[in-house]
Amino acid sequence: MKNIVLIGFMGCGKSTTAKKLAKLTKKQVIDTDKEIEKRCNKSIKEIFAEFGEEYFRKLECDLRDELATKSDLIISCGGGFANLKDIKKMGFVVFLDLSFYKIAARLKNDTKRPLFDEKAKLLYDKRMPLYNNSCDIKLKITNFKAREIVKILEIFLGDISLNKARKNHIKPKISF
Ligand code: S3P
Fold first, then answer.
1. 42 SS3 class
2. Residues with beta carbon inside 6 Å of ligand 1?
3. Do 130 and 102 form a contact (C-beta atoms < 8 A)?
4. 14 vs 120: CA distance, rounded Å
5. Residue 64 has pLDDT above 70, yes or no
6. Residue 172 — very low, low, confident or very high, per pLDDT cuts 50/70/90?
7. Helix, strand or coil for residue 31?
8. How many angstroms separate the CA atoms of 144 and 37, rounded?
9. Helix 14-25 vs helix 146-159: crossing angle, to nearest 10
């Protein structure tokens, strides 16, 4: 099976969805932030503070290239993963599209994300076209419920082969 790659802005629910999807499909889950933290033995916040964002993006690009050689994984990507370049080479890409308003509510007590600050809305607006251009399908989520997202993905991914979806550029917009 091609890897299934979840992208979207910080706090849109990629990690939770990936874990549930991995459980359902009995596949291994890779959370890119956790993988980088493990390899550096530092938190994302510490990596940003000590080495800067550019260094972090370089680690992401290396990880992207490494994951592109693997299959059968459910991959949850950090919100700006590898600057959203060449993501499709890692697998079938699903964009979880949640409004900024909902994200802000989910992250209101978050202290772990160095880029979720007063400029986050600007970053969100800048990133949206990149997510749209980098995905094979987009799930427009109005209320975050990981179990329902997984159910929809299960039906969608089971119904059509991932290769066929890619070839025909199927980009359903699913709202729930
Ligand atoms: C980032 C998102 C974070 C993490 C880092 C940078 C971003 O991941 O990779 O703080 O640039 O959007 P989540 O999307 O899991 O919060």
1. coil
2. 10, 33, 44, 78-80, 113-115
3. no
4. 18
5. yes
6. very low
7. strand
8. 26
9. 50
